[in-house]
Design a protein that fits this description.
The chain is of the alpha+beta class. It contains six helices and ten strands.
């Protein structure tokens, strides 16, 4: 079979700012639909395979941050193309060997429908496993962020929490967050849309009225935002 004749798995990715692909899938906690998460944030992630070492460390780490995600009104949902029986055996094994209970559901995507819809399959890296993908979906069902990691690299849970915090901060306050932003740091005020607003941004009066104001130039200004 030539490259052009191969099955087009993994072709195409969902788009940021558009509705996340809908799905209905079997999980370790029963059937779930994307619509079940309406009204809350969702972190959907894929792992290459059950009973593998890097994935095991990741599942333990995801279990550790799950309560922190829930504090942020965010749910967690895993996925691989293993069977539900494999998932059940694996999460039981993790608890038996490490004492870590996996509290979130894991999709058994044997037909690869969810993996294909979300672009989780990367044939150039593996023809039999899903990549390490992370998708953040907002309460309206809109896809807000995507992160992809190679099979060899375990994910950083602190970055996933930081990403959720940054998205929620941006939505709540109509701002942006700078590089390496953490909760409590100053945020970026949106760039002025007109010459008049740019001039206002450079005025001392604007600075006095804006809490924690910091100005580099008219297009780069920061301010403090009180925690929610």
């Amino acid at each position: 079979m030539t490259a052009t004749e191969q099955e087009p798995v993994g072709v195409g990715l969902p788009r940021l700012g558009e509705p996340a692909p809908a799905f209905e899938a079997v999980t370790t906690q029963g059937t779930v639909r994307l619509s079940d998460f309406e009204g809350s944030w969702l972190v959907l992630f894929s792992h290459p395979a059950d009973f593998t070492p890097v994935c095991t460390t990741e599942f333990m780490a995801f279990a550790e941050i799950y309560p922190k995600l829930q504090e942020r009104h965010t749910e967690l949902l895993g996925l691989s193309i293993d069977s539900v029986y494999s998932h059940i055996a694996w999460v039981r094994n993790i608890e038996e060997k490490t004492g870590v209970k996996i509290p979130f559901p894991v999709i058994a995507d044997l037909d690869r429908k969810v993996a294909t819809a979300y672009g989780m399959l990367m044939p150039g890296e593996s023809k039999t496993e899903t990549s390490r993908c992370v998708f953040v979906i907002d309460p309206r069902g809109v896809l807000r962020a995507m992160i992809y990691y190679p099979l060899t690299t375990g994910r950083n849970m602190d970055e996933i929490l930081r990403l959720v915090d940054a998205l929620q901060m941006a939505d709540a306050n109509q701002v942006a967050t700078p590089a390496n932003w953490r909760p409590g740091d100053k945020v970026i005020i949106p760039t002025p849309p007109t010459v008049e607003v740019a001039a206002e941004r450079m005025s001392d009066d604007f600075a006095r009225k804006t809490e924690g104001f910091e100005r580099v130039d008219w297009y780069l200004c920061k301010k403090s935002v009180a925690p929610a």
